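Entry type: protein chain
Record version: 2
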Amino acid sequence: MIMDTRDSDAEPAWMPVAIAECGVRRFPVGETNPRIVEYNNETNLVGYDDKISWCSSFINWCLAGAGVQGTRSALARSWLDWGIALETPIYGCITVLTRDDPTSWKGHVGFYLRHDDEFIYLLGGNQLNEVRELAYPVVSVLGYRWPAPS
């Protein structure tokens, strides 16, 4: 069963920003994509190139482009302490995943698109080295977050 909770009347302001970045990708060794440097400049990775993990930088950059304050951190799991927790995902919510070991500091973060019984589909940065949609096991989800009301 596929679940898509997207409400076309209430598209989050950051989703068009994120969607417009699809296809931005890491450059080969010896080159640096200046757009990814821009993403990193929204976090504590100011000045870093595109060879570092930049999923959280991308989320911060997209939110900033929509006038929403992010975590300003490059750590994916920093989003677990941001905004408000959601019991169930909604289109565009920030989704935090475990990576490798559920108890480690490592993770991944992206914008929720939809899910089925086995996979969650996220739009995010540094997904196979580019901004794109990618499927992840539902069991890897640590949490769903939404900006806190102002």
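Comment: The chain has one domain: 8-146.
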